[in-house]
Amino acid sequence: MTEDLVDRIYEAAFVPDLWPDVFDRLSELSNSAGGGMGLFDDRLDPMLIASDLVRPILEGISAEGGVKSSSVSQLLLTLPPPSEFVYDADYFPKEALENNRTRLDRTLPLGIGGEVGTFISLPTGEVLLFTMERWLTNDRPSRDELDQLNRMRPHLARAGLIGARLRLERARATTTALAAIGLPAAVMTSRGRVLATNQLLDALPLVFVPTARDGLALADAKANKLFQQAIASGTGDAASGRSVPIAPSENSEAMIVHLIPLRRLAHELLSGADILIAATALNPTNLVPSPTIPDGPFRPLAGRGAIGSGIGIGR
Fold first, then answer.
1. What is the 3-state secondary structure (H, E, C) of 15-58?
2. Which domains does the chain have, with CATH numbers?
3. Is the predicted pLDDT of residue 305 greater than 60, yes or no?
4. Would you give the distance in Å from CA 292 to the centre of its chain?
5. pTM above 0.70?
6. Distance between CA atoms of 201 and 30, rounded to whole angstroms?
7. Lower CB density within 10 Å: C or N end of the chain?
8. What is residue 199's predicted lDDT score, i.e. its pLDDT?
């Protein structure tokens, strides 16, 4: 079973949908109720994956603000990382566990008691957290159960490192693909942090301006106001695609900047990215000698209609 589990762990590094099966097997190996993984990256929202029993707990935490609202999670990131899997009662201060709302409100009603966990600081700047939930009836793990998990720890760390790198690479691959069809593009989080840009966007420094904390702005002040508003409202169930027109100037031609919300499978494929930015210039052709933007699917945000509101062939 152990060799097969190791193979499965490395498969999951490339196919994230396999992680729940990994946690089910780790649960069987360590006599646990279930398990999960958190990947923390200051450029992205945390990536949380878990077995079926634990998944609703993580979904509830995410709906209430995620790790930012969890005092134990915040404490975890301030304590020295253990070099092995440890039982939470042997690691956290007693009062932190007694006041843990996640435990009181979510795990105890399911018959889950403590946790066994480890977190790993990756050389690339991310932090990996692996946890295994314990049944109340078998709360404190035996030494053998901890040893079984610790034998898997190096494999989990290597697989997590690959997964973390692939997570960002998917965003870069998307912008590269858009460059191949002639679109300056960027991928951003809901907080406005840029995950990746392509060379076409980077070649427009008089149009797109990097800002503090990996942000992005438009050089045109009026267009940028609309752009930032669109980013702020670009996620959530009610979010919709937006288009922001940029007037021609001495430094650039007229163009339209499109903000496309990434949802469901697109959000999952891009591993936490929330918004795709793509720009199109207004290019005259034999078919459209004087391109303008009609009222329709690419209608710009209110306030800039005088610029025109259309989409031409991107470049």
1. CHHHHHHHHHHHHHHHCCCEEEEEEEECCEEEEEEECCCCHHHH
2. 2-167 (3.30.450.80), 181-307 (3.30.450)
3. no
4. 36
5. no
6. 50
7. N
8. 92
